[in-house]
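Letters spell out the chain; backbone shape is given numerically. Both lines appear below:
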Amino acid sequence: MVLTVDVGNTNIVLSAYTKERELQFSSRFATDVNMTEDQCAMLFKSAADINEFDIKQIDGAIVSSVVPPLITACKEAIKRLTGINPLVVGPGIKTGLNIKTDDTAVTGADLVCAAVGALTRYKPPMIIFDMGTATTITAIDREGAFIGGAIMPGIKLSLDALSNGTAQLPHINTELNSDIIIGKNTVDSMKSGIILGNASMVDGMIKRYKSVLGDDATVVATGGLASCIIKHCENDIIINDELVSEGLLAIYFKNKQ
């Protein structure tokens, strides 16, 4: 069994897979940059127990993190629970991904893993949306190379900025579901702006990216908030909540081979 740990700015996603790459369970926790090794270990053990999974079955592990202070805590937690030193996505690890950006060293580990995961399942060219703390777009060309992308404020970040930066706009739930186009009150107007505004952004960026990559580009979306936005888009978009974890798994096997 292989354990994958994806540490994002908003959530930590813990997944366990068989050597045949079948998902056994997946759990999501809120990221706390101050978490200690003990706290990480307790969270990981609790997730396994809740899913009736024996964590001692784990004989391989890999970690990806965009929160540097949590890398050591996660590594040591896994080592305490399983006795294994996990792989960490970073310089020196083989990903098999051809990255054609100005500075490959600063390409986010989450973007790399999502791209690798997408390439194991879908045919390039591809447009990948990851909707978390930030919303990122990754472009994969026809040869399967990572050629760049875009970064913008995520849904929750935008809502927090809107509420904190104004005197009269309230905080509203990020797990939004609304088809209202023209809001007749403050909350509905905010929902329209956030949900349909982001959906329109996704559709608009797909059109622009396809003008470069080709009209046959596959569009994939992942991230904790993808499902509440993608359902309102006009394009055909595949939602894969395990995209980064699947990329981590593929990178694990590439390095173990």
Observations:
- Strands lie at 2-7, 11-17, 23-30, 60-65, 87-88, 126-131, 134-140, 146-153, 218-222, 238-239.
- The helical segments are 37-50, 69-82, 109-121, 155-164, 186-213, 226-230, 243-256.
